[in-house]
Amino acid sequence: MENEKRGKVLEITELGDPVLWERAQEVEDVTDPAVQALIDDLIETAYHANGVGIAAPQVGNRERAFIISSHPNARYPDAPGLEPTAIINPEIVSKSEETVKGWEGCLSIPGIRGLVPRAKTVRARYTTRDGKNEEKEFSDFVARVFQHELDHLDGVLFLDRVESTRDIVTEKEYAKLLESMEGENR
Ligand code: NI
């Protein structure tokens, strides 16, 4: 399925907008044209903003839907390439005990990165945009994106997940960190 650019680029809500702290509501009918349009708009908005995922509250919508659109871009040069995937009414069935710390950003928190511990793998249930129930396992980068986006549906931001405020850095300092990591072991 190709991204046919059916959606519109929407304005992204930013830190301080109360919608980002609310719990989103279950989607009742995935086939509702408004839900289908929301998915198209999320795909287009994430693509336009170099995001690897975006959740409905980030465009001011209070429904339990997000998309994962992992692809290498300026903000995430090492992201794996995946078709944009809509995830509706998700729940995590199980997660690995093993957690991994990784750097995250958020389109709603521009200019900031945080080092966030997440489960390395998650097994999740969700509805697709065609209304099918899926159960799938995600690991590593995609598992991280999944957990980050699911948090958005529960009003949780990555800033709530860092272990220390010193694990929060600006993009400028993050770029320096990446350079020094490349020098060491990448
Ligand atoms: Ni985010």
Topology:
Blueprint: H1 33-48, E1 53-55, E2 65-68, E3 85-95, E4 99-104, E5 112-119, E6 121-127, E7 133-139, H2 140-153, E8 168-170, H3 171-185
Antiparallel strand pairs: 1-2, 2-3, 3-6, 4-5, 5-8, 6-7
This protein binds nickel (II) ion (NI).
Concise overview:
With 186 residues, this protein is an alpha+beta fold. Helix content is 24%, strand content 26%. It has 3 helices and 8 strands; from the N terminus they run αβββββββαβα.
What is the CATH C level class, in words?
Alpha Beta
- Quaternary assembly: single chain
Spatial separation of the terminal alpha carbons: 33 Å
Quick one: CATH superfamily? Peptide deformylase
Helix content: 10-25%
Strand order of the largest sheet: 1-2-3-6-7
Low-confidence stretches: none
The figure for the number of domains is 1
Q: Count of helical segments? A: 3
β content, as a range? 25-35%
Descriptive report:
The chain is an alpha+beta fold and 186 residues long. The chain has one domain: Peptide Deformylase. 24% of the residues lie in helices and 26% in strands. A 5-stranded antiparallel β-sheet has the order 1-2-3-6-7, with helices on both faces. Strand 6 and strand 7 form a beta hairpin. The longest helix has 16 residues. The protein is globular and about 50 Å long. The relative contact order is 0.17. The structure holds nickel (II) ion. Nickel (II) ion binds next to helix 2.
